Amino acid sequence: MVFVWLSGTCLYLVRATACAGFDPPEKRGDDVYDDVIESGAWRICGECEQQVPRLASHCRTCGICYFMRDHHCVWLDICICHVNDRWFMGGLFFGLIALCYGFHLSLTTVCHPRLLNIYFMDVLVPEACPDAFIDFQSSLTTSGACYALLLGILVALALSSSCVFVAGVKLREYKQRRLLPGQPGFSVSSGFKNCLNFWWR
């Protein structure tokens, strides 16, 4: 229940900290406007035709641009960008722990458990499940464990994808950096630095 509460709190903060998109600066003059665009730090979005940073991307669902946008989460109906991506990963992480623990607890309750000694710790693991569907309560518990496993696999895939983007470069950011000369490639040291910058920025 603690991990479910932590996951729900993080996912609530994803929506609570979401911004309304990038607010472009006012156009004070043609010369200044052209210099900012030509510097490479800013560009004109082809969808909303606004002045946005180079690392901003347009969300067709929201209809606006977000700075360092990762994707639009259909489950939360919000864009994941630089203001709420850490809360999103925290929600996935705690949710994955809760699903794995619920799956393990359900199976060890219904199935015949086996006691293993792993690194001086006693761990119960399910060994045989002949009575998994013997009555309604056991069937409901087993079905819930299977659904928790399937949902845990999806959450693990989403979390691993986000971890790869954090250690490396987001896909949109990579496409834009690839077009610019002199940009460094990916290395272990740069991946470690990207992780530190992600969590402690």
UniProtKB/TrEMBL annotation:
Keyword Acyltransferase belongs to the record: yes
One GO term describing the cellular component: membrane
PROSITE patterns, per database record: DHHC
Sequence ranges assigned to domain Palmitoyltransferase DHHC in this UniProt record: 41-140
GO molecular function ontology, one term from the record: protein-cysteine S-palmitoyltransferase activity
Main enzyme class: transferase
Transmembrane segments: 147-169
Protein name: Palmitoyltransferase
Lineage: Eukaryota, Metazoa, Ecdysozoa, Arthropoda, Crustacea
